[in-house]
Amino acid sequence: MSIELSGVDGKLPKGRIAIIASRYNEAICDSLVxxxxxxxxxxGYDAAxxxxxxxxxxxxxxxxxxxxxxxxxxIAVITLGCVIKGETTHDEHINRAVSEALMRLSIExxxxxxxxxxxxxxxxxxxxxxxxxxxxxxxxxAEAVLELLRLAEKM
Length: 155
Hints:
Blueprint: E1 17-22, H1 26-42, E2 50-55, H2 61-71, E3 76-84, H3 90-109, E4 113-120, H4 123-129, E5 130-132, E6 135-136, H5 137-154
Parallel strand pairs: 1-2, 1-3, 3-4
Antiparallel strand pairs: 5-6
């Protein structure tokens, strides 16, 4: 006997969802936030159930996401940021550390953590991923969180 669980459809839980977004590369991150908010609103979450918190940069995303899940009792968080490669390897260290911390947070908190951290080589790549012809990764991170919440309701 096999049971197939798909998170594509189903009921969404009530509760609040936090969007934690970097202020660094502000115009790009603003577009990611708007995409995530729009996606959550289309799924039925009203403005009172969506909390937006801005942080200085990508490095600060994990600690604020952790606090929002633990202290503010969010049902999920969506993290958004943009790190663009420079002349050094600084971006690689930031991207790796933030990615690992957010994955660890999701597992340890047993809560969906949407990953919308752009890790681009150029500003043009970031623009294309924040509403350009490659889509909006803020929307995609919100959609992934919604799917995980639906799946959790089914399980």
